[in-house]
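User: Hey, quick favor. My workstation is busy. Could you predict this chain's structure for me?
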Amino acid sequence: MRSDYDEEASCDRHLESPAISDPEFVAIAVAFWLSAQWGLVIVVVAVVAAIVYCFRTPVHVRRGLLLAFAFFGAVLIVVRCEVPDSEEWAADGTAFTGWMTVVREVDRYPSSERLLVEIHGIRYECWLRRTSLRARSATLVAGDSVMASGVIAPLSDERQARVRWQHVRGELDIEWLGDVVPGSPIHRASNRIRALVTRAGDQMGSRSGALFRGLVIGDDRDQPDDMASAFRRSGLSHLTAVSGQNVALVLAAASPLLNKVRPRRRLALSVALICWFVVLTRAEPSIVRAGVMASLSLGASAFGRRVTPVRALALTSISLLLIDPLLAGSVGFVLSVCATFGVVAIGPAILRAANRDGPAATIVAVTLGAQLGVFLPSVIVFGRSPLVALPANLLAAPVAGLVMLVGLPISMLVALVPVMAMPAVVPVELAVSWIDRVALRMEMIEPVSPLPGVLAHGALGFMVLIALARRRFRLSGAKHEVVYGDLPSHR
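Assistant: No problem, here it is.
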């Protein structure tokens, strides 16, 4: 009996010792992000900290691998972040005439429009101010090749720092736009679906249609200023930024078909569907993070491996930063990672600390976890953390999830069976209007000063930390009693 127990314990130690824990993966991901932001200084600090951490325990194999991976990965990120200055890519006053590829549709501003294009593998931003150019660019979609003429100029240091994460190397001052050639088959397919979503949104009116497109495919370009302000001040702007929830709902909508095929083929079809959805939503950092994380989890499940959500998030962040270190400068990527960490780590911890269960408790805990996850980056970047974010999300997020789930099927139904447009669109329009009204009402309640929201969420986060610490201390004490309470006393 004793021998069996020792053998089992030895086996457990053998299986566990070479593994890297979830907190260690999270630490590596954070170190990579800091390396991309602050360079070699962080690499040196991280290496010193890793050396101290690695050799404080006898498990040298795991710690050595951790140290080597973190060091070489951080150095690689720093090297890849050393992008040449704008002047090296675009000499001031360089004339250009030729074909350029549209990377994403125009972003509209009060007096101009911004078009992101690619020429010979180098990205440029174009600011369109003339009415004729703005009218001509209105029909351009991602993937199109356009004949154009203009002048290439370097970016200022301030501007280059702001658009660096998009790999923009210069500015193209367009003089005229000519012929247009459609893009690749996958671009044409995704553009057709976006057109169907736009057509379904047009059935709801301009305001609801703009919000519908934002919820389903992340296209918030046509949202009026008051709507954008209401969503931002009420903490609901993430609903129009496609992310993991959209990917999960797309897979859920396709599950009746996916479940009819074999596991390996189901995995391939699921990953292909995710890739298509990433292209459909213009490969924003948040949806790329969600797509890679979902593919990683599906792959692990298909091959019988268990990957915790926290580890999947850390591995996704590490992989994306190694592939594209400039993502570290994307606010959308940072908020997406932090919000997901709040959902998969902080939310469940709150549930355990509160000793509650059930759908209502889960929704509140997950929503609160997401809010606490984005607290610091929101305060640093935007200077505020909306006080009404928690009730606003509890009221709007479940309804938004329903719209995201049925958005694409409803858009296809409206196109294929026009007679079903009215009965199919009306319930969705009511749901979209509800979300809009929640944002407007919550904006009216939100204090003008950011201080109440910052203090409230900071105090709430501190209370959660105290509750988690007390629970861990209590569990540690109980474990100590179990281990030592059963030992025979020596007289």
